Amino acid sequence: MTPRARREALTGFLLILPWGLGFLAFTAGPMAISLGLSLTKWDILTAPQYVGLANFANLWRDPLFWTALRNTLAYTLLTVPLSLAGSLTLALLLNRRVPAVSVFRALFYLPELMPTVATAIIWTWLLNTHFGLLNYLLSRLGLPPVAWLESTTWALPSLVLMGLWTIGGNRMLIFLAGLQGIPEELHEAAALDGASRGRRLWHVTLPLLSPVIFFNLVLGVIASFQVFTPAYIVTNGGPADSTLVYVLYLYRNGFQYFQMGYAAAMAWVMLVLLLAFTWVQFRLMQRWVYYEGGATPG
Amino acid sequence: MSGLAAPLTRVRRGPRPRYAAAGAGPVAYYTLVAAGAAVVLLPILWAVSTSLKTAGQVFAFPPEAIPRPFAWGNYAEAWSGTVPFDRFFVNTLVITIVPVVGTILSCSLVAYGFAFFRFPLRNLLFLIVLATLMIPSQVTVIPMYIVFRYLGWLDTYKPFIVPAFLADSAFSIFLLRQFFLTIPLDLRDAATIDGAGPMTFYWRILMPLSRAAVTTVAVISFVSRWNDFFGPLIYLSSIPKFPVSLGLSFFKTFYGGGSGGAGVPHMEWLMAAALLVSLPTIVVFAFAQRAYIRGVIMSGLRG
Amino acid sequence: MRSKWIGVLVIAALAGTMWTLGGGSPAQAQKVTTIRMVWQGEANELKLYQGLVSKFEQSHPDIKVKLETVVASSDPEYFQKVQVIAASGDYPDVIYGHYSWFPAALAKHFLLDMDPYLAKAGLSKSAYFPTAIQQFSDHGKLYALPRETSSIALYYNADMFKQAGLKTPNEYYAAGQWTWNTFLTVAKKLTRDSNGKSADQPGFNPNAIVQWGTVAPVNMPFGLFPVVYSFGGDVLDPTNTSCRLDRPAAVRGITFLQDLILKQHAGILPSQAQQTNLFANGKIGMMASGYWDIVVTGSAIKTFAWDVAPLPKGTIQSTRVATGAYAIPAKAPHPDQAWTLIRFLSQPDNTMELAHLGLIIPALRAAALSPQFLAPGKVPLHRKVFVDALAYGRLDPRTTHWAEMVDTLGSEMDLVWTGQKSPAAATGEACSKINALLQH
């Protein structure tokens, strides 16, 4: 290492020191303990017993584990592409210097601000089979009512719908922030060269936005893999486990079925799955994410 | 492509409507955006209308859109009739604003380190940062509680504040890093040649240049902390210390596990309280909007 | 990965340091003992308890009470916090809890035997409703002092019955005719479509119902279990080691409910009715629920006369009883002071104050049977049915797998109510899963 490189490394370490301290003080311990607990049978009320890899073997044989995993994957596969596309479109639409655009941004962001209790009540009403607004609108179109939350077919899509309510929320905001960094000159230069709007979007905007798209993709997958609140409050996993998502099943095992060791095993399986996914994304990223800065991404 | 000098050019333009880029003329543009907003807004309008109804009208069927009469008293009842929301508000401000400041400062520093400096194990450490996002909090809450108990922090605001100053938001670190990576390294080198140290570059150039990203982190962490329910539920036990998210629970009942009236004896009070509770987040968002005006971000460069 | 283990070491060192530094507690100087009580309460209950606690502190200057109120809006959230506290060894002195958590707490020897305290105080268990004592007893020893109890009865819209020209459930009951068959007949007559036709008339359109005869009592567990019980069925066998829901009696009860919903179109699913408070809104004839709904739902009823009646009879008259109680963790730091507080809160006058909020039936028999509590002449007029039902109501089976069992059964039942599975197939499936659970 050259002295310069050493100085750079030292500065880098100093800069990430706050995270290092916080991680060691508050996160590393609990994570390590949960890893340890995944090797035990622990009912919370009495001392944990070491059981080796039995929890993981039991997971493999637990049909509900697979149900939960399948539901979560389905939710993720539906939610992530739809909400990424929706949020990006919305951000492009609202990234204009036109009158009242800031009002529209605020309106689209509102769902993100509603407290969870209110959101849950609003949605159970909207999706009510007999009195909900959604079925009322369907009936006006001459369509039959849908048992949104009572049918094993529609309950999971209903959760996806609830998730899409916030396409104008945080994800859109992040895209909007990303768009601020794209110099207008590039667009104008491209326009002067006669590039069509579609080509400008494809060749200028999206490449420059790719680091942010990458962020929203990775975080979107992590977040939707951990979806919990709507499944917990609105459907409670039902009907017939059709909305039993991964974290809900984990929560039930940990706090309701007195199987915290099993829950910890589930958590670490999830961690490994998400890490693998993220690692693959970071590999693939190098093909499509363009960092204007030229700095080497990790 | 990396020879882009563009970010260094000061960009200042007067407001000039750019409907064309949206795909069509102003009429089409506004129709499209307004239609979208209406769909998103409908549920919230229902909440507003519910909050102004009398108990008898809340569940009238067929539903009535306009409250008759307007029961403004619901807001007074929600604010002070059941539990002291003014106290909860102040509490929430404390456990929201202070941690948000901590998150911005600490996470931007850490992201700066990850984005601009080479050091051993950088990629591994960054992967660990991300890994902390991937473990469900349900399995770490008990050990976490034990840590806070040993520290004597239970029923205080320290569990919300101290970790925030130690960059506990991997989300924010990752987000800021992504933005920092789009800023040319040349810029830092140029600054270094001009005699600016790493901290000067961070504070005078990087942060102003990343205004939109930093604002985004601020808004997102403000909103998520403002509405956080499980953290306060677990770590706080004295009612005078409660935040608004726990206060809202007083409008629900656990009797019968939610039979009969959805566990909410007075839906109109709950909705009024929920709307009051979300007001500060709306104000914060309105202020934050200024960061999303194209062209502005460059102006801080030579200041 | 190495940094993770370094992290463990650092945290251990940190924790150790804090432990040593924080070792000497300053509280030893005074003789005042502070005890902690973890409980769940609503806004009005909270005000009441704050008053009771300050009264207690005045009469017991050597004890200070820290009320740790969990405002969790659901039981799972409440018990999550209780479990986090318990797991970290941060034992409170008093815990309020109820039936669903108790079997596990008992099986893990988490709670203190209260018999010695009862004996010392000269308290007799017979002062309480027998089911309430039974719920918290094991091998004859009591592990929690019952606070309140509740049974399930039937709320009905009296005006709707009158308009349909029907006798009220209480009149049927008095005549000995209040059976599930009568219930079905009545429910059909009360169900109306948008043309005003009732569910027993030709031309009735089940896709355009505007008024339902009843909420189908299928909620888990307090809707479904009473029906199973009164059809003569059981959930588990008497030793709580095997599932009996697949036996003919239970299957008959479940089939009755499935028909009520799918064939007769006279029952709306509880989730649908809850969200829109349909009963209070006058769109539902009958609803099986607990005592708490007198306040929760009853207070929202403005436009019609209503009352409560016993649940219909199947082969037997039955219902479900559940109880909440104060307990002391076996490892509580100050069990004696905890008992003093529990004793104080359980005094008849303090119990009555809680009862006056209207959400609970005191588990203390004398209090529940007092005219003060039964409030003759107050709506609902037949409120005493809840207390009477305590005599014939049953407790839920006691198993540490309670939550898992209810979830497993609920998942199968969901398919029954939508017609995707027959009651026999669903209960068979549920029982094989539940039996596997109970083997653990």
Care to describe what's here?
The complex is a heterotrimer of chains A (298), B (303) and C (440). Chain A is mainly alpha-helical and 298 residues long. Helix content of chain A is 71%, strand content 1%. Chain A has a single domain (56-288), classed as MetI-like (MetI-like fold, Orthogonal Bundle), CATH 1.10.3720. Chain A has helices spanning 3-37, 54-61, 63-94, 101-113, 116-126, 133-140, 155-164, 170-180, 184-192, 197-225, 229-235, 246-256, 260-288; strands at residues 40-41, 49-50. In chain A, strand 1 (40-41) and strand 2 (49-50) form a beta hairpin. In chain A, helix 3 crosses helix 8 (170-180), helix 3 runs antiparallel to helix 10 and helix 9 (184-192) runs antiparallel to helix 10 (197-225). Chain B is mostly helical and 303 residues long. In chain C, 44% of the residues lie in helices and 16% in strands. Chain C folds into 2 domains: 31-150 and 322-374, D-Maltodextrin-Binding Protein, domain 2 (3-Layer(aba) Sandwich), CATH 3.40.190; 152-321 and 398-439, 3-Layer(aba) Sandwich (D-Maltodextrin-Binding Protein, domain 2). Chains in contact: A-B, A-C, B-C. Chains A and B meet through helix 1, helix 3, helix 4, helix 5 and helix 8 of A and helix 1, helix 2, helix 5, helix 6 and helix 7 of B.
Summarize this, please?
Chain B is an all-alpha fold. In chain B, 63% of the residues lie in helices and 0% in strands. By secondary structure, chain C is an alpha/beta fold.
CATH topology of the domain at 82-250 in chain B: MetI-like fold
Please mark out the parts of chain B with pLDDT under 50 across 5 or more consecutive residues, or reply none: 1-17, 258-262, 295-303
| Alpha plus pi helix count of chain A | 13
Strand content of chain B: under 5%
Based on helices, strands and strand pairing, what is the structural class of chain B?
A: mainly alpha
Reading off the top of the CATH hierarchy, the class of chain A is best stated as Mainly Alpha
Instruction: Report helical residue fraction of chain B.
Output: 55-70%
Radius of gyration of chain A: 23 Å
